[in-house]
Amino acid sequence: MTTLLNPYLAFEREAREAMNFYHGVFGGDLVATTFAEGGMLHEPDEAERIMHSQLTTAEGHTIMASDTPAGAEAPARGQQVSISGDDAHQLTRYWEGLAEGARIVEPLARAPWGDTFGMLVDRWGVTWMVSIAAPTGPADAAGPPAG
Question: What is the dihedral of CA 130, 127, 124, 95, to 10 degrees?
Answer without folding.
Answer: -10
